[in-house]
Design a protein that fits this description.
257 residues, mainly alpha, two-stranded antiparallel sheet, 11 helices, 2 strands, globular
């Protein structure tokens, strides 16, 4: 395909998957249960944190998370007492367990009370149209209070080679808005042009099949390579192609055109 043909093909797939029907089978349905900004972003952050493995299991366990947080995540994060954390001990999603969940709640409380929330924390380190340093700083701040060593693995650091798929997905949900009804567009301090694709096995394989990506590993270098191509396809909204790459991989088992 020519560059124009490739863009047209991917644009068609964006339209196909970037619509409310996408929500019913995707973990983004969890934050869509809420209306208050802080509820949405906390629900989104926790859901993205456990977004690996079987999608049905992710959705079920993210719903369990919300129920354990009184179905009011911001209120719980800000106002919980020590005794309220006890039920969280039973939570488990793959390697993310109750101890991790309890620490995440405590750290989020610290972030909202000491750092004015997740948006402010990520936006204040946002420079040069790149959020990877912001994500690295988020991890530093997230673990600035006493924490279990094991829990650090649940937040990736792109400056240490990670593609940081789950945080980049969370950022897409919060920042991007095109009135299609999927992403929220709640955060105005960060521009959609700064977002990176939530690179995983599905989007990575499709990107390689389409010639968008040559690097074999789904790591920070591959993400940079993919970013350079996607921003040529749409300089203002490059992340929209996540819908095309993910949809082609998950729903169409795309191999090569």
């Amino acid at each position: 395909m020519t560059f124009t043909e490739l863009k047209d093909f991917l644009d068609e797939k964006v339209v196909q998957y970037n619509n409310p029907k996408f929500i019913t089978s995707d973990p983004i349905q969890i934050p869509h249960q809420f209306a208050i900004k802080e509820d949405v972003e906390i629900a989104a952050f926790l859901t993205a944190t456990i977004a690996w493995g079987n999608r049905k299991m992710i959705i079920n366990n993210a719903n369990k998370m919300m129920h354990l947080l009184w179905d009011s995540p911001y209120d719980f994060v800000i106002n919980h007492q020590e005794k309220d954390l006890k039920p969280l001990e039973s939570f488990v999603h793959r390697t993310f367990n109750g101890d991790d969940f309890i620490f995440f709640v405590k750290s989020l409380q610290n972030i909202y009370k000491k750092h004015d929330g997740l948006e402010h924390l990520l936006a204040k380190h946002h420079e040069n149209h790149d959020l990877q340093e912001s994500i690295s700083k988020l991890k530093q701040n997230f673990f600035e209070i006493p924490h279990p060593i094991r829990t650090k693995k649940h937040i990736s650091d792109p400056l240490k080679g990670s593609a940081a798929k789950r945080i980049n997905m969370f950022l897409r949900w919060m920042v991007r808005s095109d009135n299609a009804g999927v992403d929220f567009g709640l955060w105005k301090a960060i521009q959609p042009s700064s977002l990176s694709c939530p690179l995983d096995v599905h989007s990575g394989n499709v990107a390689r099949a389409l010639g968008l990506l040559k690097r074999k590993q789904n790591d920070a270098k591959a993400l940079q390579e993919l970013n350079k191509i996607l921003i040529q396809l749409d300089k203002n909204d490059p992340i929209k192609y996540d819908f095309a790459l993910f949809g082609l991989g998950v729903f169409e088992n795309f191999k090569k055109i």
